[in-house]
Specification:
Strands 2-3-1-4-5 form a 5-stranded parallel β-sheet, sandwiched between helices. The N and C termini lie close together (about 10 Å). It is about 55% helix and about 10% strand. By secondary structure, the protein is of the alpha/beta class. Helix 1 packs across helix 10. The chain has one domain: Rossmann fold (3-Layer(aba) Sandwich). It is globular. Bound molecules: cytidine-5'-diphosphate. Cytidine-5'-diphosphate (CDP) binds next to helix 2, helix 5 and helix 9.
Length: about 210
Amino acid sequence: MRFTVAIDGPAAAGKGTIARLVAAEFGFAHLDTGLLYRAVGRKALEIGRGVIDPVQAAKIAEALADTDINRDDLRTARVAQAASKVAVLPDVRAALLQFQRDFAQRNGGAILDGRDIGTVICPQAEVKLFVTASDQVRANRRLVELRVGAPELALETVARDLKQRDIRDASRDAAPMVAADDALVLDTTEMTIEAAVAAAITAVNKRL
Ligand code: CDP
């Protein structure tokens, strides 16, 4: 059985949590596509000693391996910024496209979360969700996650990272972050994660 769920939305809106729980409910495979961009960004920073070279970034994307994606140091704000900088590069996006499309078509169902899944990667997805929340709520949620490894982190620092990335992600020419016309928009500002997951499960059940 092939069945694709596409989840897009701005940084720290809850896409990953919803995707994981919906994947578990239906036994679908889950791909956090942000990790691909984070892995490219991290490696580009390392090779360029803090400076991202676009040609190098495309080469890294073409040769990306599981070991790059499975690293445990990809969740920092520094790597997130690097991810959104390499994500504006059409050659980087092109290099990552087929892997994501193949994943979406795997037998047993797949759920992918990112920025362009419902618009560019899987325009034919059976279910499309665009998950969002207010700037303040998203910054608070991300602060809680990041404080585990960085107890001193300030809310303003997190909010600045999210805002910069949202602006860059939404204004780029290549696959900008935008809700697909046929996406169900879930604003989780005043919604519990359980309620958001329940809404997503209902949307999937309607199409199964
Ligand atoms: O977890 P969070 O929502 O903060 O970010 P992420 O999903 O890990 O994505 C990190 C960055 O990768 C984003 O800010 C985007 O610039 C980029 N990205 C993208 O351009 N397209 C995707 N499908 C996924 C991520």
